[in-house]
């Protein structure tokens, strides 16, 4: 019934009459048309569809039921790779306008040397919870006006005390009139007693409060806290008590070099450019 033709001869006939054409792939035909796949790809790229679950919901509107596993397979074949979303700060419309005005103000006239004259403040949320077993809830503040539950400061003295802003300025011989101190305008920083304290100490409120809201991506000290937590994670076990955590922090903190700090401060021009490129929204910083 079938001619006795060898495989090699069939291969020669195929090359002769069909050239380089390929045979269609076997298997079940896809439920999703090529046009629909292209539409899904475009909307994943512009953010209109949110991952496989978003694709699954869209397909249901077309009357197509498909498992997440099947959707992931199709997306992988289209060149998409699964990645965790980058966590960024939320910026509302009002604060976007403030971010834009602030970044434009400092983009043109500020150099790396200018940024090195700034002192940056921020609080590190729940470092106790991240580094301790059975932690006590608290936060870290790099200021002289708040008592911290964790008793963690940028500097930790041998007696367990804290180094205030004024102590730091005196130690390094910095003039408070020319030194630029930055705050993030959180409510504790803008209260009347805090403002009065800065005024009594000879600081300019206009310069201290010149910082747009919802801007952790512009504050280089955020990366310092991240590096500190990474170094504390090098211990084989977490601290059990606050005293143990306090003993560990200076051991890691004083290993930071001048170059470690300048690397992040010198990134300020690039941070500002990133905000402008993102149309005043959040950035990867």
From TrEMBL:
It comes from the Eukaryota. This is Tc1-like transposase DDE domain-containing protein. Signal peptide: none annotated. Pfam families: DDE_3. One of its GO terms (molecular function) is nucleic acid binding. InterPro entries: RNaseH_sf, Tc1-like_DDE_dom. The lineage of its organism: Eukaryota, Fungi, Fungi incertae sedis, Mucoromycota, Mucoromycotina. It comes from Mucor plumbeus. Residues 184-234 form the Tc1-like transposase DDE domain.
């Amino acid at each position: 019934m079938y001619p006795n033709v060898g495989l090699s001869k069939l291969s020669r006939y195929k090359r002769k009459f069909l050239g380089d054409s390929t045979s269609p792939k076997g298997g079940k035909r896809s439920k999703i048309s090529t046009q629909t796949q292209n539409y899904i790809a475009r909307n994943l790229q512009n953010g209109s569809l949110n991952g496989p679950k978003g694709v699954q919901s869209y397909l249901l509107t077309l009357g197509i039921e498909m498992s997440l596993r099947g959707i992931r397979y199709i997306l992988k074949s289209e060149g998409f790779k699964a990645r965790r979303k980058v966590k960024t700060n939320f910026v509302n419309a009002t604060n976007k306008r403030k971010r834009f005005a602030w970044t434009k103000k400092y983009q043109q006239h500020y150099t790396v040397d200018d940024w090195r004259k700034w002192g940056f403040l921020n609080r590190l949320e729940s470092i106790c919870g991240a580094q301790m077993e059975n932690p006590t809830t608290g936060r870290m503040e790099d200021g002289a006006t708040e008592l911290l539950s964790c008793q963690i400061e940028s500097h930790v003295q041998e007696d367990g005390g804290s180094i205030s802003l004024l102590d730091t300025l005196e130690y390094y011989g910095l003039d408070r009139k020319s030194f630029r101190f930055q705050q993030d305008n959180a409510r504790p920083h803008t209260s009347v007693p805090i403002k009065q304290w800065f005024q009594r100490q000879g600081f300019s409120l206009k310069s201290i409060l010149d910082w747009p809201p919802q801007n952790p991506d512009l504050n280089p000290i955020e990366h310092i806290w991240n590096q500190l937590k990474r170094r504390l994670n090098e211990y084989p076990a977490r601290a059990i008590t606050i005293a143990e955590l306090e003993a560990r922090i200076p051991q890691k903190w004083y290993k930071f070099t001048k170059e470690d700090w300048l690397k992040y401060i010198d990134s300020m021009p690039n941070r500002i450019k990133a905000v402008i490129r993102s149309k005043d929204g959040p950035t990867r910083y």
